[in-house]
Amino acid sequence: MISHRKNLSETMKPDDPSSELLETRTEIFEELVSALEIKSVTRCIALVGAGGKTSLMYNLAKNMVERGKTVISTTSTKIYPPSPDQSSCLLFLGDNGIPKLEQITSEVQHHRHITLGLKVDTITGKVLGLMPEEIFPLLSLVDHVIVEADGASGRPIKAPNESEPVVPEFADLVIPIIGLDSVFLPATQENVFRLEEFLRVTNLDRGGEITPHEIALLFDHPKGALREIPETAKVIVFLNKLDQIENPEIVCELARRILGVRNARVRSVVTGILLSKEKEFTRFSRVDDST
Fold first, then answer.
1. For the whole prediction, is pTM greater than 0.85?
2. Angle, to 10 degrees, between the axis of helix 212-220 and the axis of helix 248-259?
3. What does the alpha-carbon distance between residue 72 and residue 74 come to, in Å, rounded to a whole number?
4. What is the predicted pLDDT for the residue at 71?
5. Which one, of 102, 56, 51, lies nearest residue 75 by Cα?
6. Where are the domains of the chain?
């Protein structure tokens, strides 16, 4: 475990977009579906950011199946082929890009959760993703479609470039993800994906320490973590790898900072450990949010 025992006052900066930490309410959940406020009308869910998108996608699909729902997981970028534990069925559309709806329906009925891609890239071994117009017809076949809509090359944090993320305009819920193992790391190529974009958005110097201040700026900047998210989509942030933060006050501070940024797009912040067998998720939300 990384020891992060800094006091809250050590991370406050004069230009903080949320220097007055707002009051929040905290709730504990055992299921991702509940923590992320996913309902029957939440048909398309897009995952962006870094630090656990793939783990969240398959954990969420598993939880949905446990609740009796049918799920298609896919990507609008590219992902590694799932393991049998992640998804027991991997289908491809092929070069013509025309879904074989009858086959997809049959496999969904059998497996309850399938993963769908275009084809496997012979160079990278990754599953190539679908265009939004190829994803939209899938909504009529299952209860939920989960789209990994961003790439991060295994880093715990990122800022998007001009072409990212690839979020379908019909997404009902967008979940930006941050790996908490990024907190207090230096901003270097090793730790940050799209480092130059990250430095511009956060005003941080190369090699500077990534604090909750910089992460709040990432959510406050128009070219930051909320870039290309449809106006109609609900936004809930997921902070993964909670076990990497020894001081729980740091996590509370980060959640309050994200909820307190000026644009107020983020409905709530959920924290947890996706790779843990013990499932417990904490949701932070504004006390004045009664919706």
1. yes
2. 20
3. 6
4. 98
5. 56
6. 25-72+145-286
